[in-house]
Amino acid sequence: MDRISQLPDELILRILSFLPSMKHVMATTLLSKRWQFLGMMVPKLVYDYAYHYTRYRGSKRYSYFSDFVDKSLLTHEAPAIETMHFKLGQVYSSGDIRVWIREAGKRQVRELIIEFHLAYSRVTLPRSLYTYCRMLTTLKLSNAVLVDDDETSPVSFPSLKRLSLCIHGVPEFVVFQKAFTRLSCS
């Protein structure tokens, strides 16, 4: 048995959580039979579209990525997930995003990071973000907008401590003004 495999599970999980994406975590767990179940226990989940199926383009590539995320979330068994991080490209599905946000809420994720690598547009996230994710302490959004045009719907994150909004190429202060006038944090 190698020395790394003799380390306690908590330390191996910590090491795995530093890998750049869940694809890398799953590939690494194949190195040892003892580690196979540890890939399903990592407390930090990073899903990066850029690392998946680079030989394909467009919707086919996204389809493989989406299936990987869905299967990974379905089989993940960690009692608590500290971080869920999605790095998405030009092709994405609002239906998938809605499902993944619900899953983050069910698992009481503390930190949610959603990055869209879009050149000239932004994505309005579904309302489920602020109805399901009540335990968030950190929310980081890139090229995504928290609120839609429904002025009556309050945005509430009772546990939120840190909020980071970054919208590239959109010089609209109105987006932030709308978000902050309806945002409630404790």
Automatic annotation (TrEMBL):
Pfam family, one: F-box-like
InterPro entries noted in UniProt: F-box-like_dom_sf (IPR036047), F-box_dom (IPR001810)
SUPFAM superfamilies: F-box domain (SSF81383)
Domain F-box: 1-56
Protein name as annotated: F-box domain-containing protein
Native species: Microthlaspi erraticum
